[in-house]
Backbone:
């Protein structure tokens, strides 16, 4: 996985997956055009965090949010990332090199992916989120934060997978 090359060491990680009987092309298209606002649950959870969720697509998160696409293997894997300070405030970052350049205590590097794999005659769509706390200061702030938001982050990830599967099964809807 490309994610292993981008963030091989991490403090926390979360993995969710869904199995779906659809073509790889349809699933990849759904990943690349994911619209988070298609789910009331995602709109609610994003809204609670102050994130505008109406018309929020994956591309919008990259163009107007803190996330950047670091790598893409079409039909297989898409890796995104961002950098936050210890208080979870986004830090400037435009490229993978600038992501890798952050090494100070008090910084959290976050990478997550969509990964398509074969399994039992169906495709498996997996999303993995990794957070690397770069020192004691960032761990001291992030770990309590993670304990609170982890269940909600998991809900969002599972909802992303569900939405992607629905879109792949009914393209154009």
Residues:
């Amino acid at each position: 996985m490309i994610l292993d090359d981008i963030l091989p060491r991490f403090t926390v990680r979360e993995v969710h997956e869904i199995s779906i009987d659809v073509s790889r092309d349809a699933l990849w298209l759904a990943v690349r055009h994911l619209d988070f606002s298609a789910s009331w649950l995602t709109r609610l959870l994003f809204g609670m965090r102050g994130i505008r969720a109406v018309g929020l697509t994956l591309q919008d998160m990259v163009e107007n949010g803190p996330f950047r696409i670091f790598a893409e293997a079409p039909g297989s894997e898409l890796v995104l990332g961002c950098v936050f300070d210890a208080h979870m405030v986004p830090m400037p970052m435009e490229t993978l090199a600038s992501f890798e350049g952050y090494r100070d205590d008090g910084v959290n590097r976050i990478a997550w992916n969509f990964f398509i794999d074969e399994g039992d005659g169906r495709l498996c769509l997996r999303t993995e989120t990794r957070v690397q706390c770069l020192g004691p200061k960032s761990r001291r702030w992030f770990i309590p934060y993670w304990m609170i938001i982890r269940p909600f982050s998991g809900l969002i990830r599972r909802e992303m997978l569900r939405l992607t599967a629905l879109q792949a099964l009914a393209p154009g809807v």
